[in-house]
Design a protein that fits this description.
7-stranded mixed beta sheet; binds S-adenosyl-L-homocysteine; 41% helix; Arc Repressor Mutant, subunit A; Rossmann fold; alpha/beta; EC 2.1.1.-
Amino acid sequence: APAGRSAALRARMEERLLSARFRYINQQLYTSSSQEAVKLFQNDPEAFQIYHRGFAQQVGRWPENPVDRIIRYLRRRPASLVVADFGCGDCKIANSVRNKVHSFDLVPLSPLVTVCDMAKVPLAAESVDVAVFCLALMGTNLQEILEEANRVLKQGGTLLVAEVASRFEDTRAFMTAMAQLGFKSVSKDFSSPFFFLLEFSKAAPPRPRPCAGLRLRPCRYKRR
Ligand code: SAH
C-alpha cells in the first residue's frame, strides 16, 4: 500500500538524519576540549540522547563490548576496591559489580551518575583503587583528563583503558606518554580488531610537562 510505503520511507529518512547527527556530535566531542563538551550538551540536551543512541548501536555491532571485559576483570578482583568510571554512559559497570563505583558523565543517563567534567571530578586525591576509561578518552585535553585520573588513584592503583583500535596512530608513543604521566604498563591486549584494552598501574604522580605522544585520532564511525 502507498501509505505503508511512505511511512517506511519516512522512517528510513529519520534514521539517516539521526545517524548523521550522531556522527556530527561524535566528531565534535573528539575535536573539542572537555570544557567545550560540557557546553555542547548543556546547550543541546537532545544531542546527548542522539549521541548515546548512536554510540550504543555502533558498539552493539561489535562481537564483544569492552565494558563486559572490564566487568569481568573487576569481578575477579576484591569487591572492596573502589572504582571510578570516567565517562560512564549508562552505568553498566556500576550496575554489574558489587564494588563502590563512582560514575562520572556529562549528562545523567542513570540516577547513579555524578554529572561533571571528567577533567575535574569531585573525589579526594588518592581515594580510588581502579580508574576506568571505557571508550571515553574523548576531548582534546586528554592529558588533563589522565592527570585527574592519576590524582584520584592511590599509589599502585589500576588504570583500565579500552579504546577504539583505529584511534591509535602510534601505540609506542602513546605508551611512552602514559609512562610520563606516571602510569606503568601492566598488560596490553590488542587481540580485538575493534578495541585495545590496556592496563596500567599508578607508579608516580604525573610529570608536569606536555606529552606529545598522547594524541589519538578522532574515531570516525562508518556511515550505515
Ligand atoms: N563508558 C561507557 C560510555 C562510553 S561513550 C561505555 O563504554 O558504554 C563516552 C562517554 O563519555 C559518553 O557518555 C560521554 O558523554 C562521556 N564524556 C565525554 N566527554 C566527557 C567529559 N568531559 N566528562 C565526562 N564525561 C564525558
